[in-house]
């Protein structure tokens, strides 16, 4: 694959890391109380995400992005179809899958270090390897000096870094992220995008990332899935042939803006049609 920015070979996603994710004919319909018509949030989704791939999902509000993520996570059953992660059919949450939500959801009475180690403690997996990973990830995320602080003593951006470290400390093979930076200001958001890329490069895994920010999706991803309006399904998957490692300079590159514009156009056509 040729790089859109340099013309050189674009490094492939790291081989042999993470797990393949396969969705086949996945749909989700919600029952509505009061005898009202059921609401179909997601319909006929077929998708294969390669091992070690970073895939983002974008689309209009209410198109089923979070529903799809929750089904992949095993937090929500699908109405039809199947989801597989590696050789496992998804029916419930699994320790090999880490999740980062929009809010940091740290426990206010625990220190940052204790919050980070909480999943390992719950799973009784606090061993030397887990402690070593926690130390390393806290250092990478710039939180080593704040490990004994409490969430209220940290900024929103630092709390979200801690949330990401918490999801990674168990070294999951799959990382699911639901708009993790949406509540942050632009500069903090861009800093955390770079932080996430650094953490992902250091310990690669399969990532599914939901965002409303098209530039964020292009900056982070190997591919971007564009979803239709509700009932949501995949309209198109756009390859992002930009060389890695990604650096802040990429955000001013014409090739970067060309991809952002193309994806925005795919979403814009849907929104125009909905209001026609």
UniProtKB/TrEMBL annotation:
Q: Which SMART domains match?
A: AAA
**PROSITE patterns assigned to the protein according to its UniProt record, in alphabetical order:** ABC_TRANSPORTER_1, ABC_TRANSPORTER_2
Asked if Amino-acid biosynthesis is a keyword of the record, the answer is no
What GO MF terms are annotated? ATP binding
Annotated InterPro entries: AAA+_ATPase, ABC_transporter-like_ATP-bd, ABC_transporter-like_CS, ABC_transporter_ATP-bind, P-loop_NTPase
Q: Does the keyword ATP-binding apply?
A: yes
Q: Which terms are listed as keywords in the entry?
A: ATP-binding, Nucleotide-binding, Transport
Q: Which CDD domains match?
A: ABC_NrtD_SsuB_transporters
Instruction: Give every ABC transporter domain span.
Output: 21-250
**Name this protein carries in UniProt:** ABC transporter ATP-binding protein
